[in-house]
Amino acid sequence: MSEIKDVSSGAKADLQTVVKAGSHDGDTFAAAETQKKRGTLSDLITIIASGFALISDGYQNNLMTMVNVLLSAQYKEQYTSAVKTRVSNALLVGEIIGQIVIGLTCDYWGRKTSLVWTTAMIVVGGILATASNGYTIDGMFWMLTVSRGIIGFGTGGEYPASSTSASEAANDMTPKQRWPVFIMVTNFPLSFGGPFAVAVFLIVLSACHQSHYSTVWRVCFGIGCIWPLSVFYFRFRMMNSALYRRGAIKKRVPYTLVVRYYWKTLIGTCGAWFLYDFVTFPNGVFSGTIISSVIKDNSIMKTGEWQLLLGAIALPGVFLGALMCNRLGPKKLMMIGFTGYLVFGLIIGCAYDKITKIIPLFVIFYGLMQSLASAGPGNSLGLVSSELYATGVRGTCYGISAAFGKAGGAIGTQVFTPIQDHLGKKWTFIIAAICGVAGVLVTYFFVDDVSGDDLRVRDEKFRAYLVAHGWDGDMGEDDLKATADEGIPSAIYDENQTAVKTTNH
Known about the structure:
4 strands; two-stranded antiparallel sheet; MFS_dom
């Protein structure tokens, strides 16, 4: 095997299979080389398609920011705070279900099949949202609620399916730069979707001469169907990664052992994601409402312009995090980002009455709080959730972690208005500061440092742990399928990934 040391990790696994079978003729090696090239092309397509598709997720997550303002102006009596919260939360509830279901199925069915399903759900939900109607206004809002739930199932499923496939593809294509690459094809599109949604809204609103509100929000929902459709063909043609084809567990998944091995990590990723989304989601959904409340003329166009600036200020944080992640590491980056909640949350909250009288200053400070959050937990949560878990359960654990985040977002959205009404608007920022402190503590005690090693290293440690505790199932699929203990390292690892004994496999 020394003759193939220079080939890529994915291709190396394929060539090992060829050598094991005893086939040394030129045709077989030519076939393996073709498979290698096809795998490399598939990895590239997976990375690009993941980034482009996640723009639609960011778009859908942030579209209601301005649509809430518009619907409140169009239906002043019918679009009550309860209806507004219900429509906004529908996406989050759908995302929670999608993250758990697709998280499980992308480990069982494969990344490709799951991505095709999530794309279809976003398109179907977007079409239904565009066509929302009813015998009454309330009936129309219920159809919009259901439609947004369907979209949420698709966008929620994108989190584990897109992120795990992008992480595995980047591991084989650019192992040394996979962290920045991962951030730029996951959190950057999600963050970019915010100002992009506002920009589309403003263009459509201007085209409609700042009237015909029903046309505005319907067209905006319809435009949201374009991005997932644009990558549907490429997702249909992609391959599952070499990591997945070797590490998948499709039968007799030892969930008890998984929990014993990853309990501490799950507390860290689930807890940190809950705190992050508890703050960032309601602030995203209701930021347009907050800004409109401090603008004197209450203009929808003026609110949208300030909202666009707010979203744009958050984007540099994503770039800064991508540049610094290799140097600082995802864990430190998360803690710095949560500290941003503490600092700017307290500044805005304690000086709310004065700072809201200077709208540019308020928007800048608000944007800086979100920018630091994007640089820290926004960038790092997906990264650590895809790196810390083995391939066989990566989608499941990622989906559970992200679902806890969206549960935090749903709860935060639900309590956001009552907090404003009963405690005052400044308390939404003070509570954000408190969540920042909790986020730092959870990250410090429960999130492990990510080493940057090839993801196969963690896969092999996990397999060794399962074998040491009596699991003897099959792993992988197609050409890379093998029994659990085939090729595991000589050391057996406990749940803290510490070698406890040796074995001769």
